[in-house]
Amino acid sequence: MAVEQTPVVIDEDLCTACGICVNVCPKNVLEIVEDLHIWTGSMCKVARPEDCIRCKFCENSCPHFAISVLDSGIEATFQDSKGNTVTKSK
Amino acid sequence: MATDYSKYLRMDKLPLYWCPGCGNGTILKSIITAIDELGWKNDDIMMVSGIGCSSRATGYVDFHTIHTLHGRALPVATAIKMCHPGMHVVVVSGDGDSTAIGGNHFIHACRRNIDLTLVVVDNWIYGMTGGQYSPLTPTGTKGSTMPRGNIDPNFDIVKLAEGAGATYIARSSVAEPVILKNYIKKGLEHTGISVIDAMSNCHIQWGRRNKFGDPVKLVNHIKEITISKTKAAKMTEEELKGKYITGIFRDDKDKKEYTQAYKELIEKAQNE
Ligand code: SF4
Ligand code: SF4
């Protein structure tokens, strides 16, 4: 059974948009997006979930416990950056 | 396997009070992941901290915790370990907390070789109290009490612990969180005192005064100035100037642990 979520999930209540995860991601999956409705003035978003290789660099480096990455091998169904529904397990 | 952090954190206390991008969170996460990998129960762990930004860590974790006086985390931890030798005692302390205000306690805990795990969050500054320089602030850099640059030579915490007689000494940084976690894990497993120098980024109090006001920039800087032991062996003294060598510097299993020695003393006295 595939879970319906992106392989990398950001908890927006905990994220402080520091940009450390964006810096360490080798596949350029994450992005800081301006959002003036929150106190930090921006928010980290999963921009290209289909490129994620589940290396967990972002999860290990995030200082605010805001990112969780699925283990490699778990099937996930999600919408990629072009709007197509895809299922990937790694 | 993925770590379920909510098992170890007091989730109602989140989000963390630390500044965006602060390395304290990364170090706390490394400690939690190491404990998760060891499979220890929350109730068997005692986390002790002094005063400072990093010492706020005890407020977030769901172990037995105690937030003590400035610099006095080690004496309190020593007392707890003596009363409960079966408890895993972890001490989280900042650089100022452990080497300046608690400097004396630091060398004596190392000398006694009591079974504690001390994680020194080495961010080169007193963060919470307003950016005063600590004994680990690099010479020449600025802080609120040294606006023209620090003239004090700084401690090398690894050499200090070595001289004082600690039996497990390692250094790593937030730029390599997985290696840091592995070193902490080894330190937790070690019987005797383990000192882990965890280099961290304070881009607000140290960084803003030294042109490193951005967390990403400072983490990348820390990555550049930390060099692994094997790489450093091939470099000249000149090249190593201003660099920090990372790795495990001592892992000595022969020296007697303090609570064990005390237990033997009690048994000997009882049999007399
Ligand atoms: S590292 Fe964590 S807190 Fe920082 S931007 Fe990424 S998700 Fe947000
Ligand atoms: S798991 Fe690796 S590839 Fe995926 S978002 Fe995180 S850093 Fe990028």
Quick structural gist:
The complex is a heterodimer of chains A (90) and B (272). Chain A is an alpha+beta fold and 90 residues long.
Q: How would you summarize the topology of this molecule?
A:
The complex is a heterodimer of chains A (90) and B (272).
Chain A: E1 8-10, H1 20-24, E2 30-34, E3 42-46, H2 57-61, E4 67-69, E5 76-79, E6 85-88
Antiparallel strand pairs in A: 1-4, 2-3, 5-6
Chain B: H1 23-38, E1 45-49, E2 64-67, H2 73-83, E3 88-94, H3 95-101, H4 103-112, E4 116-122, E5 125-126, E6 132-133, H5 157-164, E7 168-173, H6 177-189, E8 194-199, H7 215-225, E9 226-228, H8 229-233, E10 244-251, H9 258-271
Parallel strand pairs in B: 1-2, 1-3, 3-4, 4-8, 7-8, 9-10
Antiparallel strand pairs in B: 5-6, 7-10
Helix pairs in contact in B: 1-6, 3-4, 4-5
Bound molecules: iron/sulfur cluster (2 copies).
One iron/sulfur cluster (SF4) binds next to helix 2 of chain A.
Q: What is the mean predicted local confidence, pLDDT of chain B?
A: 93
What is Rg of chain A? 13 Å
Estimate nothing, just give the exact number of structural domains of chain A: 1
How many β-strand runs of chain B? 10
**Largest interface in this structure:** A-B, 20 and 27 residues
Radius of gyration of chain B: 18 Å
**Total of DSSP H or I helical runs spanning 4+ residues of chain A:** 2
Overall shape of chain A: globular
- One letter per element, helices H and strands E, the order of chain A comes to EHEEHEEE
Looking across the biggest beta sheet of chain A, what order are the strands in? 1-4
Which second-level CATH architecture of chain A applies?
A: 2-Layer Sandwich
Any idea of the CATH topology of chain A?
Alpha-Beta Plaits
Strand order of the largest sheet of chain B: 2-1-3-4-8-7-10-9
**What quaternary form is this?**
heterodimer
What percent of residues of chain B are in strands? 15-25%
Number of strands of chain A: 6
Q: Architecture of chain B, according to CATH? A: 3-Layer(aba) Sandwich
Number of helical regions of chain B: 9
| Beta-strand percentage range of chain A | 25-35%
- The level-1 CATH class of chain A: Alpha Beta
* Average of pLDDT of chain A: 90
